[in-house]
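In response to the reviewer comment on reproducibility (Comment 2.3), we provide here a single inverse folding case reported in full, input and output, so that an independent group could reproduce the run without further information from us. The C-alpha cells appear first.
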C-alpha cells in the first residue's frame, strides 16, 4: 500500500471549483460554526423546495450560478469534513469579491487580420 504524498488530497475527496465553493453555495461566512452551516442549509433546502426565487442563484467571483438542492447537500457534506472545509475556506478567503452579474466577453473579430495581429504578425 503506497503512502499519500504530503499535501495530496484524500483519495475520496472530490475536487470542487471556485464556483462550487461550499461557502458561496450556502452564502455563509468562513467563520460560520457547524450549527450555523447546518441551519443555513436546512433553510435553503426548504426555500428551494418551495420554489422561492431569491435562493435559486448564488453569487460567485465568476458570476451568479444556479443553486440546486444537490449542490446544497454537497456543500454541507464538504464542510463537515475538516480537510475539505479547510481547502474551501482557503479558496473562499482569497477569492475576488463575488459578482452579481454574469461575466460577459465581447467576441473577437472573425477576420484573419485580427488573428494575425494577435499573434504578432505584421502585414
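Designed residues, in position order:
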Amino acid at each position: 500500500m503506497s503512502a499519500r504524498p504530503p499535501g495530496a488530497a484524500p483519495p475520496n475527496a472530490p475536487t470542487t471549483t471556485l464556483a462550487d465553493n461550499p461557502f458561496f453555495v450556502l452564502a455563509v461566512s468562513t467563520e460560520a460554526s457547524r450549527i450555523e452551516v447546518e441551519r443555513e442549509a436546512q433553510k435553503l433546502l426548504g426555500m428551494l423546495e418551495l420554489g422561492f426565487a431569491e435562493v435559486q442563484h448564488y453569487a460567485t467571483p465568476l458570476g451568479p450560478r444556479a443553486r440546486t438542492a444537490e449542490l446544497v447537500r454537497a456543500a454541507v457534506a464538504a464542510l463537515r469534513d475538516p480537510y475539505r472545509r479547510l481547502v474551501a475556506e482557503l479558496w473562499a478567503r482569497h477569492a475576488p469579491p463575488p459578482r452579481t452579474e454574469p461575466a460577459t466577453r465581447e467576441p473577437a473579430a472573425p477576420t484573419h487580420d485580427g488573428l494575425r495581429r494577435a499573434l504578432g504578425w505584421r502585414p
